[in-house]
Specification:
This protein is mainly α and 167 residues long. It folds into two domains: 84 residues, no CATH class; 71 residues. The protein contains eight helices and no strands. The protein is 53% helix and 0% strand. Helix 4 runs parallel beside helix 5.
């Protein structure tokens, strides 16, 4: 899935401003400017849109964990897995939102997508594990949709998530 889509989705789920996104990225030592964060949230067809680099996404996901759960200063930060994959995004969001496998399964099913528990478990494994499986874009989209339904409720017909505000 495109990092920009993930950034837009999570921003919508959390209902936070662009400034708060910058703060979340900074929590893990990342740095991004306000104009860049605004351009990352524009539709890909827009001439001014820029790609959210994997390093920025990695900082955002780690910062999101610190934002939601707090930072344990006694532990060194985990090294980034670059490029950021759908599996990485799924794992980091599971940690940030304190979700168990059953919770993730329920969220995906609440978005009207059926997935088996063994398949979901395979997404959470390390890449070198024999039962590891790549998480497809569709699964991640349904997971994000389930998170959105949980935290924001169903959208009225015709409503789309906001792209960006300078608040």
């Amino acid at each position: 899935m495109i990092n920009n889509d993930v950034l837009r989705s999570i921003r919508y789920i959390l209902n936070v401003s662009d400034h708060k996104l910058i703060e979340i990225i900074a929590l893990s030592g990342g740095s991004v400017t306000l104009p860049d964060i605004i351009r990352m949230q524009k539709p890909e067809e827009d001439r001014d849109a820029i790609f959210c680099e994997h390093e920025i996404m990695a900082h955002f996901l780690d910062g999101l964990i610190y934002f939601k759960r707090g930072k344990d200063e006694s532990k060194p930060p985990m090294p980034f897995e670059l490029p950021v994959t759908n599996n990485t995004i799924l794992k980091k969001l599971r940690v940030a939102f304190e979700l168990k496998e059953d919770d993730i399964h329920a969220l995906i099913e609440s978005a009207n997508f059926k997935i088996g528990r063994p398949e979901l478990s395979a997404f959470m494994r390390k890449k070198d594990h024999p039962n590891y499986r790549n998480c497809g874009d569709q699964v991640l989209r349904y997971f994000l949709k389930g998170l959105s339904l949980k935290f924001r409720g169903p959208k009225p017909v015709g409503e789309t998530p906001p792209t960006s505000t300078v608040s």
